[in-house]
Design brief:
The chain is an alpha+beta fold and 864 residues long. Helices cover 43% and strands 20% of the residues.
Length: 864
């Protein structure tokens, strides 16, 4: 609709004109229950709720014109400064025109707002297990305007007073403490916060409480009520004790390091269904996807991942909620810091002491991919509008930004960094900031000029490659060791890097261990490591040992040869993880054949002790086979991976997390009749692997490949849903149904996602996941042309979340040919005026496809 995509220029103009004194918002959610629809698969007029908003605000220019934001089916009544306005004249579906403003103003908006099925605004979910209705909100970057009228931009902060009428028997939560009085839930006024972090949850949630207490050095005591909630159907699986344990550990850690007490009163955490994100940092009411409640056995990596997200969102209470970026250009001021602080506190406060290994192996992989796309951008990005903002919640803003902060800590020192954070909070509490506000305090505390550092690291894009250059004497000693720095031609910036260079060799018992290390600043194209001259010849030189900087690691020929033979013998798990990450980057860059990478995984992954690294290796091996292996070798690669996975599954300790991880990987790569027969036997109980418990989640993992290969039919999947008739079971069934190898099935799945908006966001995601199966690429071939015909219409007609899911998820990446690349280029050439955010997604998919073709050419060449 016109005006829905707010621009930065409009936001700056409005912020210069207006300041907001406060909101009073009254919602009537009693319409959430009833027989209007089932909540799962309906089209037509939306179900609505009443939203009445009063905004008190000032105008710097009396007589000026501005606007308020509201996305709603209808407005019943409007008044500005006591004068009734005609909604038909001033409301266009997304904006309310405000003319002839006074110095002090009061706007009252009585609207009918729509419940959402896409995870945006006020999402409504009907639990198929028991028919109960659950509501929650998700706003970032700009969907609170779907729930109440407001000024939807982060720098127009204000205190909020909320009240809610809800169905009888429900509980309602918001940012502040709530109390039910005469049938109305009334909530304590918030501190001044941005619209996008206000929040509600309402329904018959299972709710558990605890409390946190801390006494500070000045003798004051802080008491924080804690709560955690989920759907009633998940209550038997909800390990709230562990959630509270990590929460308390995090609060202790941040209080100790930030010297600023948690400022938002209570701390509720809601695990909600059909959530689009991992989590959201609403102060006092953090929301998480309910998949963090584990219905079956999972590995420690899953618990570590949940703890990291809990701590990431908690860090936002200071970086993002207390102090907020002025506009989405500086999104990194909250997301990069929260990503860094998540790992920093995970290692410093919890049982997960290997968090930096996960960061190096998993989070940085996300960053490296994003930073090599044509859409890469500086960490401080150029965000022109809200669609830009939506797409910039990416690997650059999160993982690269966090990596750069880790580099900054090494550059200025941890004490100076944390003291800078403390001053930043105290000076800017409840306000909005830009890049310079943070740099100025860090310059104070470190004594270093950060302008050059910031320009190189925050204001330029691209990733550097660091390669060791080793010259040895005849006696086998280092006569010269240098680090060579390179950059892509498209992003030629060579940055200052604080790095450690480690030298490794075999010990008498065959282990590969570090025997020398130097830490230094790398600048320019070549930096000599003088400290290691004279050291004995290494078998492996690891640039960026200990993972201090953000770069792609390369190897000299001797080091690469050592990895091919002895990767599994590197004893340090972080060093080993860094080597694996570097080898994967070589594969993605078409410098290592995919079959070689797969061979390394088959040879050494069984020795990997870190379960998170092992899971990442499985994902990479699967991607190497699906995308980068020569098409003529895929069948052989499938056989080798399945044989290797089954071998390791049988060798793994019974009942161990390694056994579970190999079982899931075996299911992912199984394709031969014997493999599929084994999966079927494990499901039916006619086959057993000692110690492997096939719980409900593992049953669905085994069923998907059986469905994809035509072994499990619709009746089998219906029977499994009857066994697991839950929201989770329904998502699994929908994915498996769409995976079946039938032209009619693919046509039905395509129509359900592209031609209809009946499915909820979660079922759209499940259908796309099932549709896109690499085992039967020929069935997907007809949809390449249909994709390019449909995406502009999808972008215009659907919510941005669903549109993003469709454009990214249905790109014909499995039609990996020059013809598909040409078709993509033709669409881009013919649609230069398409929405920039849509073009960005297509350009990214095009780049991935071009990388696929380069990788396949490398693999073909390796075969001779």
């Amino acid at each position: 609709m016109p005006g829905e995509n707010l621009s930065r220029d409009e936001a700056q103009e409005r912020a210069a004109l207006l300041s907001v004194d406060g909101y009073e918002v009254s919602l009537d959610l009693r319409s959430a229950v009833g027989d209007q629809d089932t909540g799962q698969a309906t089209e037509g007029a939306p179900r609505t709720f009443r939203s009445v908003t009063t905004i008190r605000f000032r105008s710097a220019e009396p007589g000026a014109t501005s606007f308020a934001d509201l996305i709603a089916p209808s407005v019943t009544a409007l008044s500005l400064n006591g004068k009734d306005l005609d909604p038909g004249e001033v409301f266009d579906g997304t904006r309310i025109l405000l003319e002839d403003l006074a110095a002090d103003n009061e706007l009252v908006v009585d609207a009918q707002c729509a419940y959402s099925r896409t995870g945006e605004g006020m999402h409504r979910f009907v639990d198929p297990e028991d028919g109960e209705v659950y509501l929650y909100t998700q706003y970032e970057p700009a969907d609170s305007r779907r729930v109440f009228a407001n000024f939807e931009q982060p720098d127009l902060k204000a205190p909020f007073r909320f009240e809610v009428r809800a169905p009888e028997g429900w509980t309602v939560w918001s940012n502040g403490v709530g109390e039910l009085t005469d049938g109305v839930w009334k909530f304590a006024e918030t501190k001044p916060i941005s619209t996008y972090i206000t929040a509600f949850a309402a329904g018959p949630y299972h709710y558990v409480t605890d409390s946190y207490s801390r006494t500070f050095d000045d003798g004051t005591t802080l008491e924080i009520p804690l709560g955690a909630m989920c759907r009633k159907g998940l209550a038997p699986y909800f390990d709230s004790d562990d959630v509270f344990l990590v929460t308390k550990q995090g609060l202790d850690f941040f209080h100790e390091h930030f010297d600023y007490p948690y400022p938002f009163g209570k701390y509720d955490q809601a695990f909600v269904p059909e959530y689009n994100l991992g989590a959201m940092e609403n102060p006092g009411l953090v929301t998480f996807r309910e998949e963090f409640i584990f219905r079956g056995k999972v590995t420690q990596a899953s618990y570590e991942g949940r703890a990291n997200v809990i701590l990431h969102e908690m860090a936002h209470m200071w970086f993002g909620d207390l102090v907020t970026m002025e506009w989405w250009d500086d999104l990194w001021l909250k997301e990069s810091f929260a990503d860094f602080m998540g790992a920093f506190s995970l290692v410093g406060a919890t049982r997960f002491k290997d968090g930096w290994i996960t960061f190096a192996n998993r989070r940085k992989a996300w960053a490296y991919r994003a930073d090599q796309l044509p859409s890469t951008h500086p960490i401080t990005a150029d965000i022109r509008d809200l669609q830009d903002a939506k797409l910039n919640f990416d690997g650059i803003t999160y993982a690269k930004g966090a990596s750069v902060l880790k580099q900054l800590v090494a550059y200025v020192g941890q004490d100076a960094f944390l003291e800078g954070a403390r001053r930043y909070f105290k000076r800017n509490a409840y306000g909005n900031t830009r890049l310079g506000d943070l740099l100025s305090v860090l310059e104070e505390t470190s004594g270093r000029d950060l302008a050059t550092w910031a320009r190189a690291w925050l204001q330029t894009a691209g990733v550097n490659s660091l390669t060791p250059q080793v010259i040895l004497s005849a006696e086998g000693r280092i006569t010269e060791l240098a680090v060579l720095q390179e950059a892509a031609e498209s992003h030629p910036e060579l940055r200052p890097h604080r790095v450690a260079v480690g030298l490794y060799r075999r010990t008498p018992d065959g282990a590969v261990e570090r025997y020398a290390r130097a830490e230094l600043d790398v600048e320019g194209p070549r930096t000599v490591v003088a400290e290691l001259v004279g050291a004995e010849a290494p078998e492996l030189v690891l640039v960026n040992d200990d993972d201090l900087t953000y770069c792609k690691i390369r190897f000299d020929e001797g080091s690469l040869a050592t990895l091919r033979e002895r990767l599994g013998e590197i004893t340090d798990p972080l060093a080993r993880a860094l080597c694996w990450s570097a080898l994967w980057n070589l594969t993605r860059d078409a410098l290592m054949p995919a079959r070689d990478f797969i061979g390394l995984v088959l040879r050494f992954a069984g020795r990997e002790s870190d379960i998170g690294v092992l899971q990442m290796l499985h994902a990479w091996a699967d991607s190497a086979l699906t995308f980068y292996a020569a098409p003529g070798w895929r069948a052989e690669g499938e056989r080798l991976l399945a044989e290797g996975a089954l071998k390791e599954l049988r060798l793994a300790e019974p009942g161990s997390q390694h056994q579970l991880t190999w079982a899931r990987f075996f299911a992912r790569v199984a394709s031969g009749s014997a493999d599929l027969q084994l999966l079927g036997g494990l499901l039916e109980g006619t086959a057993k692997i000692d110690g492997l418990v096939v719980d409900q989640e593992l049953r669905w993992a085994f069923l998907e490949p059986l469905a994809a290969h035509g072994v499990a039919d619709e009746a089998a999947l219906a029977a499994e849903l009857a066994r697991d008739d839950t929201a989770s079971g329904k998502r699994h069934q929908v994915r498996c149904l769409a995976a079946r190898p039938s032209a009619a099935v693919k046509a039905q799945a395509w129509a359900a996602v592209v031609e209809s908006d009946a499915l909820s966001n979660a079922l759209v995601e499940a259908t796309i996941a099932g549709f896109d199966q690499p085992s039967r690429r020929e069935l997907l071939a007809p949809y390449a042309a249909k994709y390019f015909d449909a995406i502009e219409r999808v972008w215009a007609d659907r919510s941005i979340q669903i549109a993003m899911d469709v454009v990214k998820g249905l790109f014909p990446s499995l039609q990996d040919s020059q013809g598909t690349l040409d078709a993509t280029d033709a669409w881009l050439a013919a649609h230069e005026s398409a929405a920039p955010a849509l073009r960005r997604l297509v350009l990214e998919a095009r780049d991935d496809l071009a990388r696929t073709l380069r990788g396949q050419a490398c693999d073909v060449a390796a075969a001779g």
